[in-house]
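Researcher: I'd like a candidate sequence for this fold, 338 residues long. If you have to choose between options at a position, lean toward the conservative one.
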């Protein structure tokens, strides 16, 4: 379900004010859960890539880029994910035989780059990664999960949306209040173009004065694909499908139709048959995201083009310095994909 538009208004208007008491209860419950936790202290550093709000903010590309940075330092890194949308409770190491229905689309995507464990019990997942030889564990999400001690927490936020009206669910998009979350964070990574970054800084800069603030964006990965002028039917089931459509347009593709699905929505054969029939009628090529491609049935993968994106940060320095402090190898320079 798409979030209500008033979550991202300046104050949310009367719906946010009406739901404010429930938001206060939600934030209070989060605070109590965090305070009551008896977290597992891993034998290796644990780095959390999380967020303060519900919905897509870009955590998975940040996790992918961070894993590349750690691998470049010759550090054995493994990722632990809850496996949203997958039915396996785990801990289970994701392999090529798994499907998105079993382990979730994001772990399946990440597993092509780094060893990934799916575990509804995050502490059990971290233990499994340790036993498998990990020298550092990256949690993909889990900032509000108290079961594991985090040695470094990076908060990812979409610069265009920011933290919305600043209110907790259901009065706004927040899992917890901004001040409470940032008090436990080590850095904030905002993702978006220059205009969005400036708006984010103007709205939230005062809250970030005590934290490193890293600006970045997700850029298409050069693949040699001649996107310019290509007639496409673009579909996506991610947190913000419109961002994918905008990226595709920015490459010069002619989008003749778009179809937006819920985040992590299963792509059934019936849905894909309808998309394929519509694309044929329009004389268009089906195009989707990497995350959606992980949910395609095998017979469809050769018939759908994929637009991959990668994280670009203006300055990796604060992250590299934090990895140095954790004793995680030595920086070998910029990642080839940054």
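Model: Candidate sequence:
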């Amino acid at each position: 379900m798409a979030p209500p538009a008033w979550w991202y208004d300046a104050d949310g208007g009367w719906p946010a004010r009406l739901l404010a008491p429930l938001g206060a209860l939600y934030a209070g419950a989060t605070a109590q859960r965090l305070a009551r936790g008896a977290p597992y202290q891993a034998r290796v550093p644990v780095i959390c890539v999380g967020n303060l709000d519900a919905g897509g903010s870009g955590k998975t590309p940040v996790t992918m880029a961070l894993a590349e940075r750690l691998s470049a330092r010759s550090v054995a890194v493994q990722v632990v994910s809850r496996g949203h949308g997958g039915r396996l409770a785990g801990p289970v190491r994701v392999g090529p035989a798994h499907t998105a229905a079993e382990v979730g689309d994001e772990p399946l995507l990440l597993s092509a780059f780094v060893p990934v464990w799916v575990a509804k019990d995050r502490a059990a997942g971290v233990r499994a990664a340790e036993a498998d030889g990990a020298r550092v564990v990256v949690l993909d999400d889990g900032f509000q999960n108290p079961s594991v001690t985090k040695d470094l927490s990076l908060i990812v936020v979409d610069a265009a949306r920011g933290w919305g009206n600043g209110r907790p669910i259901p009065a706004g998009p927040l899992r917890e209040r901004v001040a409470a979350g940032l008090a436990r964070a080590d850095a904030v990574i905002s993702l978006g173009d220059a205009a969005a970054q400036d708006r984010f800084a103007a709205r939230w800069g005062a809250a970030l004065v005590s934290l490193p603030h890293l600006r970045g964006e997700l850029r298409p990965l050069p693949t040699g694909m001649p996107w310019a002028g290509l007639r496409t039917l673009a579909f996506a089931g991610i947190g913000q499908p419109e961002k994918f459509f905008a990226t595709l347009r920015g490459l010069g593709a002619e989008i003749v139709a778009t179809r937006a699905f819920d985040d992590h929505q299963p792509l059934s054969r019936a849905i894909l048959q309808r998309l394929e029939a519509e694309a044929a009628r329009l004389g268009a090529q089906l195009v989707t995201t990497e995350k959606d491609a992980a949910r395609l049935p095998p017979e469809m993968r050769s018939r759908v083009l994929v637009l991959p994106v990668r994280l670009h940060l203006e300055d990796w320095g604060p992250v590299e310095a934090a990895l140095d402090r954790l004793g995680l190898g030595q920086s070998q320079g910029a990642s080839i994909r940054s």
